[in-house]
């Protein structure tokens, strides 16, 4: 096992690409095969750590569910998104009643 202070500090700082580049310079100075193999594995490990994970793909349903949970935790959730509407939506029963009231002929 080979110790290199600079490369290990870079790893601890999370600078894995720079650490991998430094391990490459250490590899040039290795004389025996076991040391070269160990440094090569360490360099590959640094490069694996440097890879960014694939981005998460959110669907509309996931975003909607997260927004609803957040609204409920804040105490502002109302059915059909009424908390964010100027004119509130009515249920189908209420709309039928309103239509019935509007369709009655006026009596004078």
UniProtKB/TrEMBL annotation:
InterPro entries noted in UniProt: ANR_neg_reg, Tscrpt_act_PerC/SfV_Orf40
Source species, domain of life: Bacteria
Region (Disordered) residue spans: 88-108
Alphabetical list of Pfam families matching this protein: PerC
Protein name: ANR family transcriptional regulator
Gene source species: Salmonella enterica I
């Amino acid at each position: 096992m080979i110790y290199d202070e600079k490369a290990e500090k870079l790893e601890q700082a999370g600078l894995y690409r720079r650490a991998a580049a430094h391990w490459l310079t250490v590899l040039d100075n290795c004389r025996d095969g076991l040391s070269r193999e160990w440094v090569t594995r360490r360099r590959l490990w640094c490069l694996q750590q440097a890879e960014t994970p694939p981005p998460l793909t959110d669907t509309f349903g996931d975003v909607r569910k997260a927004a609803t949970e957040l609204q409920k935790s804040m105490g502002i959730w109302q059915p059909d998104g009424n908390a964010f509407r100027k004119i509130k939506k009515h249920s189908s029963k209420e709309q039928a009643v309103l239509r019935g009231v509007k369709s009655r002929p006026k009596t004078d």
